Protein 1
Amino acid sequence: MLRTMITATNTMGQLQHKLDTVSNNIANSNTVGFKAQEATFNELLYQQFNNDKLDRFERQTPVGIRYGTGAMLGQIQSNHKQGSLQQTNRDLDLAFTKPKQYFNILMPNGENGTETVYTRQGDFYLSPLENGTVMLVTAEGYPVADAAGQAITLPDTVQSFAVGNGGVLEAAYPNGDIIRTELAVTEFQKPQLMEHIAGSYSGLPANLVELGYTPAEVLTELAGADRQQIGMQSGTLEMSNVNLSKEMTELIQTQRSYQFNARAVTLADQMLGLINGIR
């Protein structure tokens, strides 16, 4: 009975992680550029009991009893399928029209520095600075990087924006001047190696070298002639790719599995009570 409890409680803990993943997907179903997370399970170690060696019937599993110890969450992967595009008619709402292309964002790393993270969330804003300029930032206030890896700053008299070919941001001014800035765009070659940071942001994992890869094998900076591969349009946002029907089905199935394992713990406890009550 104790082994039954251990098996059930091991699985319950992992099912709770899947519930958290599904709940996070549902909560971000309206988050711009969000990519759904998909959790898969693996079987834990099991013990083989060869208690019936005379059984000669053909079967796909070994003869005897296989006593498992539960299941574990094998991996959580991001679904990088492109979400639907929604027209907003706002100059600083930018969306990619091709998959695997991401904006470069400069996020503080907690050590008085910044690290480059990646997102398809293109609802950008202007944050005023002290010297009569403005900075292009995300909805969370993180600077957007240009092709040189620097934060994009412009004079604060900017009037309107547009996106030209090759991911060039064109800022128009009342006197007719136009300042053109190449937005930094990165293409994921191996998107499943990327690590989810928060919200719609992804970054390179800290153990990338241990996994046997280099940043150049995972990411491609679209620069020079490669910038013609960039598909981007303004006045549009890419919505999340969360399938609510699928997520609700996963939520119900996971909850039922959790209840089943909880019931197994209850039954094991009741049977132990009966055994202890025998005099």
Protein 2
Amino acid sequence: MESGILTDMETRNKNSAAAILEQVAGRAQVSTGTVSRVFNNSSLVPSATRSRVLRAARELGFRPRIGVRNKQIALVTESPDRTVMGGYVNTMTQYLCFALSREGAGITMITEDRIGNLEDCWFDGIIGIAWEDETIRILKTFRNLPVVWLSDEHADSFHCVYVDAHKTGRIAGEYLWNRGHRKIAVIHDNDYIGFNRAEGMRRILDELGAETPPLAFCNDQPLHLAVKRVMDSGCTAVWVTGEDMKSVEVYWLVRELLGKRIPEDLSILGFEHPGMTGFLCPAQTSLVSPLREIAEKAVELVLRDDLKKLEKIEYPVQLIERNSIKNLP
């Protein structure tokens, strides 16, 4: 066995190297030699055996580190075919990589289309920016590793660094109401965050005395149909909540396909990503998440490696006022 490979494990678990090997070997039903080869990243161990050994070590809370290597963090993100260049997931992935590299941490990127690879590698922590049910199921099996999730949806299972979707919806609704809009629509993502944003807007408009709730459209339908229904319904404003290119698409559909003017015929409130919305004509009024700060806090949490108490850290959004909202009498 390579010298020093179990040094950290011995310190963390107060066991000798031999005792650790025996415990892992017994749980995985393999020899101590096989465990040693897995810990040394030997290519001679079959994949199924390697997975069994790693799973046994994780269940026992053991994390071998070769020599004095830096911490290795798994970054779980969307598959390449789903990621919008310059969009939320793409940008957050970059910010996380920058923050991890500044701390000297190693980075292994696991996309959701190969999520099973998580169970075949050693990590000191995981940060998740993905949404699939299978991804969440697998992450919940990692009992002895810090896992940071960028939403409060699974705060009972992971550390969470997030922007409150319900509060954001309330801010959007109140802002449009205070500018005289009484018939408002929201186009939202088909997920936990999207539905909570729409619900937050509905709640605040109800409290403010709106006669009708906001017209809500989940963007699992073609976007041009949602935009046409917004216009046909007589809405004076729409909040486009997705942080990718959705609001840019809505701009194009309103102006080029329907021949309407912004904000004269329809006011548009966006969610600031990508940053190009400041260069649209007219420049788009947007709510903004502090993505860089969220990424840095997520990295701080995962490297702190504290499993005693799950952290739940909320960041506020910022409103950037530009020229896409018309004030109504």
Protein 3
Amino acid sequence: MASCLGHFLRARRQATPLSKVGLPPVGRRRTPGLRRDEVAVLAGVSVDYYTRLEQGRETRPSEQVVNALAEALDLDGEATQHLHDLARPKKHRRAFPGHADQVNPKVLQLMAKWEDYPSAIVNNRLDVLARNALASALFQGMEHADNLLRLMFLNPASRDFFLDWEEDALSLVAHLRAMWGTEPDVSSLVAFVEELSAASGEFGEMWARHDVRAKTHHSIEIRHRWIGEVTFWHETFSIDSAPGQRLFVGIPEAGSPSEHALAQLYLRTTAER
């Protein structure tokens, strides 16, 4: 049975086109991406050894081999680190029950001060633990807004709300994969992934890609029912005092129509209180 390392290698191999690693196209291929023998040649290992890695019969490759595989599959820095973590899994860190989802009041106070920026705090499953007033206004009335992935995949309205739905969905799934890390036996995460996979074929397909992207920072475009289309830069910060918690912040360009629209939304929200 394939290991986490094997699943990752197979998924990334199948997602890597020949052109990306400098190989010429060779006739019609029955499967997407690279073949096992091609990865083995690029990484400088035997086909048998690479096959055993994918099948889970070899689970402790050397650091040199891991680096060679990362180069062969053209992995970025974050995916390369993830590959190293899979090859050398860290010991499970003991969690502290009852505290993982508690948000520090000082962090809430800080977030509330950012009146111009929609911000939210999430945990490893992307449950929304807290929002400031502007973020609450943005997602007001949206079903499944208590979890970013459920919102994205289980709420049909999300496809109109997020103008680049597929890219934003891929980013969230890759973020969850990074949060999953090397501990796939965590029961809450397993159940969560199974729930989403059963409810959404698109989530299952994206999850199977094994994309890894914890450092989320890109532009997001939404269409809000009150203020129309808004664009903002999306950045994510780890909260060191609460491992597993992250702070999402949306930052509109200074002086832009989006900044003005968000300001109008905030004023409307405060007026209704």
